[in-house]
Structures are given as structure tokens and as C-alpha cells.
Write a structure and sequence with these properties.
The chain is mostly helical. The C terminus is likely disordered. It is globular and about 50 Å long. The chain starts with a helix and ends in a 23-residue tail after the last helix. Helix content is 78%, strand content 0%. It has 17 helices and no strands. The protein has one domain: Up-down Bundle (Growth Hormone, Chain: A).
Length: 412
Amino acid sequence: MKELLMNRKFVFLWLAQGASGLGSTFATFALSWLIYEMTGSKMAMGSIWVSFMLPNILIQLFSGPYLDRWDRKKVMMFSEWFRAAAFLVLVIWISMDQLEVWHLYAVSIAVGLAQPIFYPASMAYVADILPKDKLIKGNSLLEGTGQVMMLLGPTLGGLLISAFGTEPVLYILIISLGVSGFLLMMNPSSKKKQLVKRESWFTQFKEGLQFYRVYPVLLWVGMMMMMINFSSGAAQPMFLPYITDELGGTAFQYGLFTSAFSFGMVAGTVLTGTLKEPENRKLVMLGSLFISGVLFLGLAWTPFYWLALVISFGQGIFAIIFNINNTTLYQRRVPEHLRGRVFSVRVLLAQAGVPFGAALGGLFAEMFSIPILFTVLGCLIACTTIVCWFNPIFDKLSEKGIVNIDVKAGKK
């Protein structure tokens, strides 16, 4: 850990991602609260997520191949400042007492256009500035710090909304995203001129896809995550009505529930960062997802708010254990000149299920109930991981060493 903190470039990235994490958490909390307060509709909760995820996926599709050509630092800065500007416009609408529902959708679309380029650029930039033997420690620290911000954000957001309304939350998120962009300015450019190739979008995107053909286990992991994130996309918009309607909670209790998940992710980050790298990565990754599915079943039928907090905490632990091992697996397998486009394809695969889940989850909850929805989603996650466990391709998750891959030649 000391070596990471002595790395100036990593420290600025670490602080920037921390500020970005707080701003992003406040953004999700504020938009969710405003749309449910104005409409009271579960369908609207799902549709606001769809309005964010559809442009998110389109940007992933068309920007991914160019992330290896662009300066990754400037890409992250643009993402932070564009989102800050979008929420500044929202604050102006609120201050003029002219806020309408369509304004929330417009801001959600704008954020969906800018946010998706931050994460793949950040993942690729981390691999640029850290040696391979420090990646899992660096990823653990970055993920952990982001989750600390997400831990503080919902609880603080709930308190602020209960006491003062949504405007203070919006002011803080605008400042956080702005500060994140300025911190990133302190780092050097990641652009390497010798690696820049003036190729067409199709050629570059195809190279990213070819990596998955050469190393197919990552394609299968992406397909698995598409199913898991379908469930996540259906559940997340329903957490606000779940707490306020099903369990009779308040804005603060909703924030605390969201924070419990983030607190679990912090605990999982500490656990992952202190233990040795797992010998059996397949068991760790698939086992974590299976337990998350089982916990969903408990969340569906508990009548106790305190038990829902405990379950949310447990889900956070197992979610981050999977995420850290999955990210590290990619960073070690993907050649440096392909990281941006391969990471973009990865995020595209993983997020493709989210808008469908959000749209169908809201409809399903309106037709039946949130507990039944959570039951179906828990069974879907558990069954998906069981099927993957018996698929021999997932045995490659536990392979040791680094595979040298010539993507253009299609050879290992």
C-alpha cells in the first residue's frame, strides 16, 4: 500500500475517483428521489433508468474503439465536467421553480452520454500507471475508496433531503464532479503517439471483439454479466419504493439501505486486498454471484428493515469480490494497445441487460409486487451461476500466468 501512495499519478487518480464516486452517488440518489416524489410511479422509476442506460450503451458502442486513440486523462475530465454542467442546469430549473418531469429525463440522458466513457478510460489508465503485480492492490484501493464515497453519499443525501430538500445534494455533486476533473488535470497525458493508429471505427471495434474470440472465457463472463445485470437493472430502481412503501421507511432509511450495500463493498474490498490472490478464481467469482442471488430471496420476503440492511451489506461484500477479480483478470489478459476498446466491449456486454431489466422490472412490480419481483430475480441469478459452473469454459478463470495473444493473427 505504501508504494501506491508514493506514486503521484496514482494518488491524483485515487482522489479524483473518490470525488467522482461521491458525485455519482448523489446524482443517482437525487434523480431517483425527484422522479418518485413527482410521479409516485414504479414505471417512472424504471423508465428513468432506461433513459440513462440506452445512451450509455450507445456511447459504449461508438466511443470504445477510440479510447485507445484519445488521451484517457482528457476523456475522464470531459466526462466529469459535462455531468457537472448537466446538473447545474437542473439546479437552475429548480431555483426558478420550473422543474418538470421531462427535465429529469433530459438530465438523465445527458449523464448517460458522458458517464460511460469514464470507467473504461479509468481502467485502462490504471493499467498504464501501475505495474502488473500492483494491479489487484491498486484496484482494491480504488474500488474501496469509491465505495466509501458511495457509503457516505446515500446516508448524507437522505439527511440533506429530509432537512433541506434536494438542492444541497445537487450542489455537492456538482462541486465533487468539478473537483474530480481538476484533480485529473494534475496527471500526465496517457496518450502514446507510437500506439495511435488512424483506423476506421469498424476496424478498431473489430479488434476489440477479436480478443474475445481468441480468449472466449471473457466473452462467456460478459454474457453471464449481461444476465446478472438484467436482474440488477430490474431491482435497483425498485429499492426506493421497496424501502418507503414495503417497509415503511423514510428518505434517510433509504439512504442508509443504499449505504449498507456500499459498506459491504468496502468490507469486501478490505478482505480482497489483504488476502492472497485466490488459487481457484472460478469458485470465488461464481460462488460470490450465487450467494448474491440467494440473498435476494431473503430481501424479497423479510418484513424487517434491520434485516434488509444486513442482507444489503452481504450483497455488497460478494459483489465487490467478483468485481475486483473480474477487473484484474481483464487487466492481466488484455494487451496494452487494446485495453480501451476491449474494456469498452466488456462494459457494453455487461450493461446491455440493464435497460431491459429496468423497463421490465418496473412493469412487473406494478403488475404483481416488489417481493415477487425480487424472488424471480434471485432465482435467475442463482440459476445462471449454476449453469455457468457446469460449463467447462469457466474452468479457464483459474488459469495461472499471463496469456500472450496476437489478436490480429488470432493466436495464443
